[in-house]
Amino acid sequence: MKSKVDADKINLLFVKTLKSNIEVGSNFIKKEGQEYHLSLGQESGLNLDEKKIAFTLKVLIEFPNKNEDAKAQAEFVLQFLFEIENLDKLATLDDEGAITVSGELSMTLAGISYSTARGIILNTTEQSTIRGILLPVISPAKLFTEGKIQL
After folding, report:
1. What is the CA radius of gyration of the chain?
2. What are the beta bridge partners of residue 80?
3. Dihedral of CA 28/33/37/41: which sign?
4. CB-based contacts of 13: which residues, under 8 Å, 6+ apart?
5. Within the chain, how many helices (H) and strands (E) appear?
6. Can you tell me whether residue 138 is helix, strand or coil?
7. pTM for this structure?
8. What is the mean pLDDT of each run of 10 residues along the chain (151 residues)?
9. What residues pair up with 142 in beta bridges, in sequence order?
10. Strand partners, 27
11. Sign of torsion, CA 149 20 61 134?
């Protein structure tokens, strides 16, 4: 894995919304600047022969409230399929069949996926009761911490 990531060799083939669900209690009213809890998770898979990597991003947004009827949450699962023209130079296969991908490539794809998801979620929530959620800018490395992360 001596190659550097070259953006010109990364193709985003598709973005698929696997889940988009907004639930609001009957007494929920979003206030300007209202805090929310954000949980993120990710999964990825790759096919070395086809030079493709699938990256799935899971997002849970919760507006907590002591009153059950005043709670709200939104859940999104978005899948991104990338084709990496030089994946053979950015990933290695060991003797036991385990694949290791360069950290630079992992961070690049996570950054592209999260940034795209921010726009999709903002657009999707714009006309909903939770009115336009703009996810915070984060380091893509946070998507690779064990389990779900809370922001």
Report:
1. 18
2. 15, 55
3. positive
4. 52, 81, 82, 83
5. 2, 7
6. coil
7. 0.89
8. 85 98 93 88 93 96 92 97 95 84 93 96 93 90 66 50
9. none
10. none
11. positive
* Residues contacting residue 83 through CB under 8 Å, at least 6 positions apart: 10, 11, 13, 50, 51, 52
Compute the C-alpha angle 115/130/42, nearest 5°: 35
Tokens of 92: 């290695």
Nearest to 101 by CA among 112, 110, 90: 90
Count Cβ atoms within 10 A of the Cβ of residue 30 and give its class: 0-12 exposed, 13-18 middle, 19 or more buried: middle
Residue 100 to residues 9, 13, 79, 103: CA-CA distances in angstroms? Answer: 19, 22, 21, 9
Residue with structure tokens 């703009």? Answer: 134
- Residue type present at position 100: T
CATH number of 7-150: 3.10.420.10
Query: Kind of pairing, strands 72-84 and 10-24?
Result: antiparallel
59 contacts 43 by C-beta, under 8 angstroms: no
Cα distances (Å, whole numbers) of residue 56 to 6, 38, 125, 143: 22, 16, 20, 11
Tokens of residue 145, six digits: 């911490």
